[in-house]
């Protein structure tokens, strides 16, 4: 605790020289880890999204009900066959360097740059057949086939607009402009002091004339969990988000009259946590083993005792905060006896020491709550005769090993990105079995699931689409390709003087154009 206090004090001292003159409307927010870059077209990591979401914009934003709303696209029309999208762009939009934003930038972003550089757009934009720009304010996109998630694919997170005049014909990753990002958003980069802070300033030429309200946003880099908590209490930061604050401490802030805690603003991400299972490893390929894992784990205990209510038990592959979720799926109540019965059926009987099977669990290196979750899994599975060896690695090693299929079990959580076709198909489709993180690294293959996902992608009738996704969920939950644990409810904690913070399904990753500090 002493080191955490010293860290906050040193942070304040080191920042004071460069930030002596505070703006009238300055918001200070914790960020961790420090982003590698702010260029959203090149990097989709969480801190890049949080800060880059104030600098860059997409054609579409989504409200908390996950319905599309205008952003850089003022309006749009969709043809009856679901293949042609006509976008009318906002007028008088400028890039931060003063150059006009136009349909040419949209065509470049969607047709040239993002398919090469963006990990999600590389897949979702492959459905585009042609992009036409009849004038500076109109974009006509024709798809190869209907794709009902196409609007979702055009959000800031999934397809940020990038400036053609800066990137065309360049080595995107090595472009010198990457040090000074140029977007259309309400804020632009003012200063970045590595290891300490990133300072954004108001874009005075923002296309919404009465926005933003803030003069500056200061993102303080605070790696230590305890230090972030102290910084929030002391007013050094006014906002924390995601897993900034240990879940055991969230209730303390909720009971403090100076703060507000909200779980809203994560609907677009809808993070779902699970035990990923490598189907290539011995009995793990048998669905009875995977079903046994589900019965052996008390997911209510995980949500309440380990995550302290900042989670709810998951029922299947689609989060309950997402469209097309269905609760009409097989259930796996906590039932160790049923788990043992399934293991007996497999011939995994206890040896002299009571062990039926030995398995390794690769821990997720994202803080103590994930460590505790792994420890509980080890304890719970031991009660049904599965001996778990916990493996602890750093984040880079974890990512490398999962991508290389070098694991037996591992903890993971994945964002669902507003639509099953974008955030969920990728985990279960056999065509996506790749040595790429957040793909179907477990090696699961079910032709029926593939067919259902293919049908859902092109379905334009909402009722039939729900039926298709309900059937897919039922098949998957019976098959248990992985062991779903909890839907994570990330808390955003902020001083009550901060207003207009969470207005969309993108939450703290949104533009902050509406945020202001109460007098």
What's the layout of helices and strands?
Elements: H1 2-16, E1 26-31, H2 46-52, E2 60-62, E3 68-70, E4 73-78, E5 84-89, H3 103-117, H4 121-124, E6 128-135, E7 138-143, H5 164-167, E8 187-193, E9 197-202, E10 216-221, H6 225-234, E11 239-240, H7 247-254, E12 259-262, E13 272-277, H8 287-296, H9 299-306, E14 311-313, H10 336-345, E15 357-362, H11 368-382, E16 386-391, H12 395-403, E17 409-414, H13 420-423, H14 425-428, H15 447-458, H16 462-479, E18 483-488, E19 492-495, E20 498-499, E21 516-517
Parallel strand pairs: 1-10, 15-16, 15-17
Antiparallel strand pairs: 2-3, 4-5, 5-7, 6-7, 8-9, 9-10, 11-19, 12-19, 13-17, 13-18, 14-18, 20-21
